[in-house]
């Protein structure tokens, strides 16, 4: 398959990043969401990011940035968004029933040969595509935030994903400048499952009074060679709520070994979700 156009289904944090990444890689891009306000906000954010991180830093010219932006078309129309697209990458919220419905709707309007990929961080690819009539063309393509910087892409095979579909997505990942790993469908895949366990254990160390937030993170940085401690990373990426959601999912699928630390649940209930709320594992209210 010669991929020329990519549809990004969802214009939230990851959707807009992937739209920019695809456009910078030379692809025509349609970015779709259910509200025009969300689409316009995403286009504005992409324009600002291109200027701040690429033009102002001398990485590309303003003319090149304008061409990238010109390759991205925003819309709320489902049929229009997937028209002539060889690959659709879904970036809607992490709710299995919602994703299943989105995939069912895409299956009904996409060309028969179109590949449907999901950027889910943890949910079953087989389950997501179960309501479609093209399960051989359903696959996981999990990027990491921020997508422009993080090099890893997890390519997840569903139960019926074909070799042809996998090869197209692997080649697409290469053209995005990413390093791909092949993963068989399982809750949490590889990176998220590992990181959620690490985050959960880090939170337990704090909750049990064994060490402070700062010292747990320092142990991971200086003792394990991590660029950033897991608790700080949760705050910066606003990931505390996502981690709780994934841990609850892993527990339901894999057992009590994945029971979330009460401190994580308390943070979510208190609305202490990280930098964006002024407090997470650290306090940002005075910054």
Give the mean pLDDT. Answer: 97
Spell the H/E element sequence.
EHEHHEHEHEHEEHEHHHHH
**Tally of strands:** 8
Instruction: State the major sheet.
Output: 8 strands, mixed
CATH class descriptor of the largest domain:
Alpha Beta
Computed structural class = alpha/beta
Please name the fourth-level CATH homologous superfamily of the largest domain. NAD(P)-binding Rossmann-like Domain
List the topology elements.
Elements: E1 5-9, H1 13-24, E2 28-32, H2 36-55, H3 62-70, E3 72-75, H4 78-82, E4 87-90, H5 96-109, E5 115-118, H6 125-128, E6 138-142, E7 152-157, H7 163-175, E8 179-184, H8 191-207, H9 213-224, H10 230-236, H11 240-254, H12 262-269
Parallel strand pairs: 1-2, 1-4, 2-3, 4-5, 5-6, 7-8
Antiparallel strand pairs: 6-7
Q: Can you give a write-up of this model?
A:
The mean pLDDT is 97. 47% of the residues lie in helices and 14% in strands. An eight-stranded mixed sheet has the order 3-2-1-4-5-6-7-8, with helices on both faces. Helix 11 crosses helix 12. The protein is of the alpha/beta class.
Give a brief description.
The chain has helices at residues 13-24, 36-55, 62-70, 78-82, 96-109, 125-128, 163-175, 191-207, 213-224, 230-236, 240-254, 262-269, and strands spanning 5-9, 28-32, 72-75, 87-90, 115-118, 138-142, 152-157, 179-184. The chain is of the alpha/beta class and 287 residues long. Strands 3-2-1-4-5-6-7-8 form an eight-stranded mixed β-sheet, with helices on both faces.
């Amino acid at each position: 398959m010669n991929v020329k156009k990519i549809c990004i289904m969802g214009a939230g944090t990851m959707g807009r990043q992937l739209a920019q990444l695809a456009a910078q890689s030379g692809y025509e891009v349609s970015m779709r969401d259910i509200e025009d306000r969300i689409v316009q906000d995403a286009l504005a954010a992409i324009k600002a990011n291109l200027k701040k991180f690429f033009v102002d830093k001398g990485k590309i010219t303003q003319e090149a940035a304008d061409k990238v932006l010109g390759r991205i078309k925003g819309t709320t129309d489902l049929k229009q968004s997937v028209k002539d697209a060889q690959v659709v990458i879904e970036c809607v919220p992490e709710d299995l029933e919602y994703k299943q419905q989105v995939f069912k709707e895409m299956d009904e309007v996409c060309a028969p040969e179109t590949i449907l990929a999901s950027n889910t961080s943890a949910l079953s690819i087989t389950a997501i595509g179960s309501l479609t009539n093209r399960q051989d063309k359903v696959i996981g393509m999990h990027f990491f935030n921020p997508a422009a910087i993080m090099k890893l892409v997890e390519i997840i095979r569903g139960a019926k994903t074909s070799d042809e579909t996998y090869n197209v997505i692997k080649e697409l990942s290469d053209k995005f400048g990413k390093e791909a790993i092949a993963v068989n469908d399982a809750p949490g895949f590889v990176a998220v499952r590992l990181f959620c366990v690490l985050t959960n254990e880090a939170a337990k160390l704090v909750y049990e009074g064994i060490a402070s937030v700062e010292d747990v993170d320092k142990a991971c940085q200086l003792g394990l060679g991590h660029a950033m401690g897991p608790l700080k990373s949760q705050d910066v990426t606003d990931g505390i709520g996502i981690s709780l959601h994934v841990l609850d999912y892993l527990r339901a699928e894999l057992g009590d070994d994945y029971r979330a630390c009460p401190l994580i649940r308390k943070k979510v209930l208190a609305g202490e979700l990280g930098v964006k709320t002024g407090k997470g594992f650290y306090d940002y209210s005075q910054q």
